[in-house]
Amino acid sequence: MDDLRRIDLNLLLTLHALLAERHVSRAALRLHRSQPAVSHALAQLRAIFDDPLLVRREGGLTLTARAFELQRPLEDALDQLQGLLHAPAFDARRARRTFRVALSDYGSRVALPALTRCLRERAPGVDLAASQASREAMLTQLLDGEIDLALGVFHDLPGDLQTQTLFDESFVCVADRATLPARGGLSLEEWIARPHVLVAMRPGPDNEIDQALAALGHSRRVAVTLPHWSIASELIAGTDLVLTVAQRSVAPLRPDRQLRRFAAPFPIPPFPFQAVWHARRDVDPAHRWLREQIVDVCSVSR
């Protein structure tokens, strides 16, 4: 108990901000405090923990080993305190909060526009900080408390993480209209004979499309691999390339457009688009409210 008398809640909140931001000025902005006040608090924390906590390296500040050890238990302790101190209700109209959400390029397309409109209408004081990362990085960020929620396609989740399927997504093919038959799409042989565009964070057959094709004993030539869906449909215009992607990622194509959508000539299993969060967030009514809004906006997009 003597050690607890040396530290108060404000110091713990300052430590949390410093470990998350790894920058004194940004931590001060996050806490709505002056930079000298945060610097003074950091000096107190260094004395209490008998550790530098943040040390200067080339390119900025980095955490010491002791600081890394403190991140998870500090996040858990603050979440539990918040659950004790706050009423089990969330007033969206009056709330002032920032939610940190990680999602893929596809997730941004299908969820962010409607979610942003929802927040502006129902919770004008709630801010959204969106980031993009690989599936593995998102899960690590959830475990470390760096983000509140991740939206994407995940497999083999750690036990501390909770998940909810928002919808099941299917695939569609897109090609230049001039390279397709007058009606219909391509046969399997014609589809395999064409060069393809793959939308993925990294090249390789580790994706639902190539796995389904391999199950039939076939493979395809991927001529272009892109990390973003947004330019993919424009890239195939005027070429013989075929794009096979999740159907919600393809902007609606008007009948007079150069591109045409058609069904894949072989079965590709649909995949679940999920929301994932850490179990520690279950006690947070604001977090629960956000998840409910995401379920609402994704159900409309089906």
Q: Any overview of this molecule?
A:
This protein is α/β, with parallel strands linked by helices. The chain folds into three domains: 4-85, Winged helix-like DNA-binding domain superfamily/Winged helix DNA-binding domain (Arc Repressor Mutant, subunit A, Orthogonal Bundle); 97-166 and 272-300, D-Maltodextrin-Binding Protein, domain 2, CATH 3.40.190.10; 171-269, Periplasmic binding protein-like II (D-Maltodextrin-Binding Protein, domain 2, 3-Layer(aba) Sandwich), CATH 3.40.190. Helices cover 39% and strands 22% of the residues. The protein is built from ten helices and twelve strands. The strands form three sheets. A five-stranded mixed beta sheet has the order 4-3-5-12-6, with helices on both faces. It has a five-stranded mixed beta sheet with strand order 9-8-10-7-11, with no helix packed on it. Helix 1 packs across helix 4 (65-85) and helix 5 (105-122) crosses helix 10 (285-300).
